[in-house]
Amino acid sequence: MEIAVFGTGYVGLVTGVCFAEMGYNVTCFDIDGDKITALSEGNCPIYEPGLEEMLKRNLAEGRLYFTNESTNACRKADYIFIAVGTPENEDGSANLGYLDAAVASIGKSLDRDGVIVIKSTVPVGTNERVRKQLEAIIPSELRVSVVSNPEFLREGSGILDTFHADRIVIGADDHEAGRAVAKLYEPFGRPVIQTDVRSAELIKYASNAFLATKISFINEIANLCEHTGANIEDVAKGMGMDHRIGSQFLNAGIGYGGSCFPKDTKALEKLTEYYDYDFKILRSVIEVNSRQKQQLFHKAKELFGSLQGKRVAVLGIAFKPHTDDIREAPAVELITSLLGEQADISVYDPAASGKVSDLFGSKLYYAENADTAIKGADAVFIMTEWPQITEYDLGRYPLLMRQPIIFDGRNCYGLEEAETAGLTYFSIGRKAVNVHDTLKSLKR
Ligand SMILES: NC(=O)c1ccc[n+]([C@@H]2O[C@H](COP(=O)([O-])OP(=O)(O)OC[C@H]3O[C@@H](n4cnc5c(N)ncnc54)[C@H](O)[C@@H]3O)[C@@H](O)[C@H]2O)c1
């Protein structure tokens, strides 16, 4: 069985490598020539645990190929997966430009019947549009089916999620094509749900919007905890033990980011506008998240008054641990606000420094570890719960900083240990620790 994959980003590359691992012959195509060169040499351009080893093994065993010629990818393919980006347009809608370009080059290259499988997250109705687009380009004697197969992997555990997916969603109006794609997934041994195309497209958006809702909901409860004196950790634990609620996605924090939740919630909102439907909860989820991302900055402003000339360290930039992805990361927004205040900023992230430096260049100091980042700092902002940060020795903050003031957006430390270590510690949905002495010394 021959598989082609268009797009070798987080989703396409993981998909291609995992299909090869299952014994299929896979050819991956990307318009980014540098990526293709690196991948052909076994070098993984993204940070994804376990991916590079699997990539190298499948290259060596001759099941995995990379090409910068779309025709090469399509030539023998029985199935062509599309996993190109669908980023956000300025108005919040999904930008389908990459998808359309991929479809156009597939259309030009197809010289036999084909099953096109869309993995990219696309608004309801897109699969149908793609089928019509293809039918208009390909020779009339060819038959093409378009199957929706949205992806649910999480960056940082992409391989694990692919082999242990909760479900594989396959949406097809051509049932034979749908069954064939389901068969392709049989070796993974995961539950498959087959639906019509439009339902499959909506399952993806509904799932992401629901998870985003859970996050915004617990963040609202955390803010309420700060007003009422309750502790969000206890509240979330008490809620999560109810099986109807479940404990996942109940970690209060500085808001969701990344390449999916922000753009997918906005694209869904755009879709509801198109259908003239007022999805009230969704609008609030988006609004709550954008306010939440500013929480720590406001707390710091309240404490310091002005941050001009203050030495601040930002620990963790990636939108979550175990990835180098900084798209829509709350830390990026914080850094932008801090730069606006003319703060003097050092940053540390175990994987994302390169991407941060592409974005901010010489405006920041890039530290190689947490020690170097926090040295001489007036305040530290914790934005990603990397183990290097959660397991950091709290005693080092007072030792290395000018004053140990910590704003923790991920509730990495216990309140008691923060207090014992002598930190002035602000977190999310919990009482602030050792604040009075700091206020006195700042006033002096
Ligand atoms: N990243 C995630 O965790 C995740 C999870 C589930 C679903 N998704 C969805 O999957 C899709 C891909 O996301 P991603 O994070 O892998 O994107 P990405 O930006 O990491 O990668 C997209 C890749 O597509 C390539 N590309 C663009 N146009 C192309 C074309 N015409 N032909 C071939 N390649 C082309 C780009 O060069 C890039 O390498 C998106 O729709 C996203 O919403 C992402």
Low-pLDDT residue spans: none
Oligomer: single chain
Structural class: alpha/beta
Q: What is the CATH architecture descriptor of the largest domain?
A: 3-Layer(aba) Sandwich
Strands of the largest sheet, in order across it? 3-2-1-4-5-6
Overall pLDDT metric? 96
Bound molecules: nicotinamide-adenine-dinucleotide
Number of domains: 3
Main sheet overview = 6 strands, parallel
- Shape estimate: elongated
Cα(first) to Cα(last) distance is: 74 Å
CATH homologous superfamily label of the largest domain: NAD(P)-binding Rossmann-like Domain
Please give the share of residues in helix: 40-55%
Query: Radius of gyration in whole Å, from Cα?
Result: 24 Å
Quick one: how many beta strands? 14
Explain the overall architecture:
46% of the residues lie in helices and 13% in strands. It is built from 20 helices and 14 strands. It has a six-stranded parallel β-sheet with strand order 3-2-1-4-5-6, with helices on both faces. The chain has a six-stranded parallel β-sheet with strand order 11-10-9-12-13-14. The chain has a two-stranded parallel sheet with strand order 7-8. β13 (405-408), α19 (415-420) and β14 form a beta-alpha-beta unit. It folds into three domains: 2-195, NAD(P)-binding Rossmann-like Domain (Rossmann fold, 3-Layer(aba) Sandwich), CATH 3.40.50; 204-291, Orthogonal Bundle (N-(1-d-carboxylethyl)-l-norvaline Dehydrogenase, domain 2), CATH 1.10.1040.10; 293-443, NAD(P)-binding Rossmann-like Domain (Rossmann fold, 3-Layer(aba) Sandwich), CATH 3.40.50.720. The N and C termini lie far apart (74 Å). α1 packs across α3 (51-60). Residues 6-12, 29-32, 35, 83-86, 98, 101-102, 120-121, 151, 153, 155, 259-260 line the site of nicotinamide-adenine-dinucleotide (NAD).
